[in-house]
């Protein structure tokens, strides 16, 4: 499943996003791809939510990948060295072609 990350991933938006994706993470072996192409603001709260989502997916024998990083998201993840923790792809279209998910837009 491909899920678009909101433009602003700050404290309040990160909390809303986590509540929104929680049902997807609670499934059996969740396979998620987060599309970060629209992200213009990513702070510590947003990074924590990404890490929490990855942790929850892995606990259920699932996976979380990131795709289509905006320049801002790429820089923030690189500066915080969190980019090393995720499998990152240049586009989410690969996953759609492979039939790995349904695209959901915020």
Written description of the protein model:
This protein is an alpha/beta fold and 106 residues long. 42% of the residues lie in helices and 21% in strands. The protein is built from four helices and seven strands; from the N terminus they run ββαββαβαβαβ. The strands form two sheets. A five-stranded parallel beta sheet has the order 6-5-3-1-7. Strand 5, helix 3 and strand 6 form a beta-alpha-beta unit. Helix 1 packs parallel to helix 2. The mean pLDDT is 89.
Please describe the topology of this protein.
Blueprint: E1 2-4, E2 8-9, H1 11-25, E3 31-35, E4 41-42, H2 44-59, E5 63-67, H3 71-79, E6 87-89, H4 93-97, E7 103-104
Parallel strand pairs: 1-3, 1-7, 2-4, 3-5, 5-6
Helix pairs in contact: 1-2
């Amino acid at each position: 499943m491909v899920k678009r990350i909101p433009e602003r991933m700050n404290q309040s938006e990160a909390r809303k996003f986590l509540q929104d994706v929680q049902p997807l993470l609670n499934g059996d072996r969740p396979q998620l791809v987060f599309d970060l192409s629209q992200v213009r603001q990513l702070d510590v709260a947003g990074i924590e939510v990404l890490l929490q989502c990855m942790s929850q997916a892995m606990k259920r024998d699932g996976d979380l990948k990131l795709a289509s990083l905006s320049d801002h998201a790429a820089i923030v993840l690189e500066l915080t060295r969190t980019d090393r923790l995720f499998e990152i792809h240049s586009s989410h279209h690969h996953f759609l072609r492979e039939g790995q998910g349904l695209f959901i837009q915020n």
